């Protein structure tokens, strides 16, 4: 996995708040299709639909595009957890704001994660969901900051989209104080915006 090169920022509603683009819209969609193909092949012989779990709000764009790219039936579930607030890094203290609406016992479950940053929230989520007795539990992560990961993740990583530098990124679901999620690319937020 290589870190994508930085590119100029296309015109957007946020002016020059984004310093540079790390992953373009086309690169996102191409890689998501590849990831969905891999998961479809792995679970193609299963009788039950796989359950995709997205963590609100960041994973909404990714889980939607990922589910549409699958060639096997899937069902979506959502959780809302908080570990960031309006900060730029995870506090490591996780609170459930919205839990799953269904039982996942005996089901094939994939956490569809937008970004592995510190890994603290994902590590907590994996432990929480394993205790619910799924048949299998894996993770597909679109983005990862390998230099920021603070915990060893006990998981089956089905696939990973892109490794990123340890900078504050926004777009394609990623936000700062609830802004920038709607950008169709992933870019670096200018430090002057959040300092």
Commentary on this structure:
There is one protein chain. This protein is an alpha/beta fold and 195 residues long. 23% of the residues lie in helices and 30% in strands. A 6-stranded mixed sheet has the order 4-3-2-5-6-7, with helices on both faces. Helix 2 links the parallel strand 2 and strand 3. Helix 1 crosses helix 2. The protein is globular, with a radius of gyration of 16 Å. The two termini are 31 Å apart. The mean pLDDT is 89. Belongs to the purine/pyrimidine phosphoribosyltransferase family. Pfam families: Pribosyltran. It comes from Corynebacterium mendelii.
Strand order, main sheet: write it out.
Answer: 4-3-2-5-6-7
Task: Provide the succession of SSEs.
Answer: EHEHEEEHEEEEH
Quick check: average pLDDT?
89
Q: What's the helical proportion of residues?
A: 10-25%
- Radius of gyration, in angstroms, nearest whole number: 16 Å
H/I helix tally: 4
Bin the strand percentage. 25-35%
Biggest pleated sheet: 6 strands, mixed
Query: Which structural class matches the secondary elements?
Result: alpha/beta
Ranges where pLDDT stays below 50 over 5 or more residues in a row are: none
Helices and strands in order, then pairings?
Layout: E1 18-23, H1 25-43, E2 50-56, H2 60-69, E3 74-82, E4 95-98, E5 108-116, H3 120-130, E6 136-144, E7 156-163, E8 169-170, E9 186-189, H4 191-194
Parallel strand pairs: 2-3, 2-5, 5-6, 6-7
Antiparallel strand pairs: 1-9, 3-4, 8-9
